[in-house]
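User: Reviewer 2 asked us to show a designed sequence for the structure in our supplementary figure. I'm pasting the structure tokens here. Could you produce the per-position amino acids so we can include them in the response letter?
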């Protein structure tokens, strides 16, 4: 079998791996993007029913990399976020106008993000898509990293990047362990139609079994108002809700959504996702780096998982592109160390915050309930605190990379 040589081999053509390939390829690096699913399946609506809340910070990265213009028509701005604690009259209101003219984030369907990214890499001569293909082994003992695919093909690269998700093969093959746990909650994801417009408002209602989020989407082509639903519930209850027929499921949706959107109905399809927290003990090994879910998986309570991955991507691509300009080895251990050191604390801090939020809100214990309601009310009354939380949630605080600051590579 022939051996093909690249600057960077990316394992995993999910949103993270494909974004990374598009950025590196656009900057002239030769990239192999290896994905085990056929690209047509990844772009279909049966594969991933989720939307992503793309923060202001991630949008800057995508804009600077020239990847946002194609997504913008499908992106619904989030101008307001309302956080409610079950039936409590106290709630927290984040209004984007308090921190500037930009929306707090934008909701885009994952299938459309994948479609747009695949279109871009197909038009980028420096990116070679290898799919469907599964990576079977990784060898980093020589002067280059070598990947062998299940069909026997071989790929050599200066560096292998694991973008292969929560059960990362690259991570395991590099001998990197993880810490974490599975939550007792699963998420039900679907698309909901509604009678009244959402006015670009996202709502997160904390119920005892888990948060119920309504995320504003662009109207359908026939004018139907739509919101994406992320309904987190106890893992034992989720299979029962998944099996409900349409009228019974819609009655459950209506009771959780309340009346502010008028009558609601399910457009679907319905998906379910088990939830977990998992963190790689290292993000790097000789000639290996991990990005996005391969390095860290968090609870979706704050819609930040992929946004953290975007920050990994922005920094690692800057380091690799700068290094390529010097003509030196991309697998340099000092470069890898810089990446790990810069990204680790940010990712750990977000993982811990989302975990604490979930534990604090997903319960019905009276003293905790009282404390969190008072907490919500207090933050809502203090503009400085509101602005602090908004900037963190927007990913606008402390950008570590040029792309993160909206500059080109
Ligand atoms: C319910 C829910 C809602 C969410 N909402 C948000 C949100 O609003 N905002 C946000 O920022 N994040 C959100 N997230 C998190 C976000 O979805 C993930 O962080 C993101 O999808 C991770 O992308 P990824 O490319 O790293 O991994 P994946 O999407 O898992 O992609 C990994 C890819 O690698 C491929 N692969 C795996 N192993 C191999 C192998 N050996 N060889 C070849 N290919 C391989 C897989 O086929 C897959 O395509 C949410 C998560 C959930 C569960």
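Assistant: Here is a per-position design you can include in the supplement:
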């Amino acid at each position: 079998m022939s051996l093909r040589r690249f600057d960077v081999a990316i394992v995993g053509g999910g949103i993270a791996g494909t974004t990374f390939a598009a950025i590196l390829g656009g900057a002239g690096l030769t990239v192999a993007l290896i994905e085990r699913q056929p690209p047509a399946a990844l772009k279909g609506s049966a594969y991933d029913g989720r939307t992503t809340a793309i923060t202001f910070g991630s949008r800057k990265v995508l804009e600077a990399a020239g990847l946002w213009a194609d997504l913008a028509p499908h992106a619904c701005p989030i101008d307001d976020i309302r956080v409610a604690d079950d039936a409590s009259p106290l709630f927290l209101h984040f209004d984007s106008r308090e921190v500037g003219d930009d929306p707090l984030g934008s909701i885009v369907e994952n299938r459309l993000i994948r479609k747009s990214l695949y279109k871009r890499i197909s038009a980028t001569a420096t990116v070679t898509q290898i799919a469907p293909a599964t990576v079977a082994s990784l060898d980093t003992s020589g002067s280059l990293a070598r990947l062998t695919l299940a069909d026997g093909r071989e790929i050599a690269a200066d560096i292998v990047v694991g973008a292969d998700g929560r059960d990362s093969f690259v991570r395991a093959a590099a001998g990197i362990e993880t810490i974490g746990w599975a939550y007792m909650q699963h998420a039900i994801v679907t698309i909901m139609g509604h009678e009244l417009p959402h006015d670009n408002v996202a709502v997160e209602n904390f119920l005892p079994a888990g948060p119920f989020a309504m995320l504003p989407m662009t109207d359908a082509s026939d004018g139907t108002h739509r919101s994406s639903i992320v309904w987190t519930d106890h893992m034992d209850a989720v299979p029962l809700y998944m099996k409900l027929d349409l009228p019974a499921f819609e009655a459950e949706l209506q009771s959780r959504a309340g009346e502010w959107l008028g009558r609601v109905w399910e457009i679907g399809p319905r998906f379910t996702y088990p939830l977990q927290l998992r963190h790689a003990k290292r993000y790097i090994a000789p000639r290996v780096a991990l990005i996005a879910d391969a390095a860290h998986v968090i609870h979706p309570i704050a819609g930040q998982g992929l946004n953290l991955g975007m920050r990994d991507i922005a920094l690692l691509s800057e380091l690799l592109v700068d290094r390529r300009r010097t003509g030196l080895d991309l697998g340099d251990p000092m470069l890898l160390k810089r990446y790990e050191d810069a990204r680790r604390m940010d990712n750990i801090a977000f993982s811990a915050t989302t975990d604490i939020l979930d534990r604090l809100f997903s319960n019905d214990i009276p003293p905790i309930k009282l404390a969190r309601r008072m907490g919500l009310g207090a933050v809502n009354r203090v503009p400085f605190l509101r602005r602090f939380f908004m900037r963190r949630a927007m990913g606008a605080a402390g950008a570590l990379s040029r792309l993160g600051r909206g500059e080109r590579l």
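For the response letter, you might also mention the following. The chain has a mean pLDDT of 91. The chain has one domain: 3-180+276-405.
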